[in-house]
Amino acid sequence: MKGIKFLGNSRVELADLPDPKLGEGDVLVKVKASAICGSEMGSYRSPNPMNGNAGHEVMGVIADLNGSKRFKEGDRVGVFTIQGCGKCFWCLQGKPDFCKEAGGVSNAHSEYVLSKEMWLHPLSDDIDDATGVLLAGDGLGVPCGASARAGVVAGDVTCVFGVGPVGLGMTLVQTFIGARVISIDINPHRLNLATEMGAWKTINSTEVSDLRAVLLDLTNGLGPNKCFECSGRQETLDVALDVTIPEGIVTVIGHGDQKINPQRLIFRKNMKLMGNWVCHFSDYDNMLRMLHNGLQATRIVTNRFPLEQADEAYSRFSQGLEGKVILTQ
Fold it and tell me: What is the pTM of this model?
């Protein structure tokens, strides 16, 4: 099959890749659309080539049922990013991300991708391909899941540190919920995108001498109710812990080398610190409700490229020139 191959050092090409081999419980999905995720950048920029690609956000149509009774060939489906054993305590709750045997979908920027039957979401005809990618995987799942677990409600003042694709999704989702969102980044282009997503205020942290003071000034000296650290940087986590209102919540989403003294949560703060990895398979219904209630998920999609132009798509994404990017077939 044709698919994207990571060559190392920020280079990709369309190449012949091995056809997927169906196993027990697998179905074969013909890919219609896949999304580039920020978590792919480590593999993309690495000097080490891959046999395929790190894509994992994907939707398509059933190409080979392999005995499945749940679907029929041609059904449109979203492929959930994390897939578990299907039998353990966590999988039976729709939380395969906690399964001890959990593994991620890979090689999704290809003509075909494998998925266990139980980790597919059926997509109705009113859900376009790009929205299907965002709903099924972590493109919309992380913003929705993290916002729900932090209990974001209308009237909250929230702060999003880092407005890459995840942070832009946070801004969009929390604005939709009714929060006033402060979006922070060092990339002017992405701050402009955050404004388009509905941010109440945007701050370029390189243009202020005291970010803590600015955030307190915006919140009448109280601080945001909830902060979301999406950049994986120590300095932004430190600011979030300093400025979040007493009894507020800091959610860590970005991946990076960060440390914290738990005592910072206690004195005069009574704060909560929580983490958020991807999302749960069971979060899908809540995301679907938000979509049907008016959430315009594809606003975070800033560009679409055919698979043959993946090199340009990755280059633009890597330079911070895009929000979410969809590869189409």
Answer: 0.94
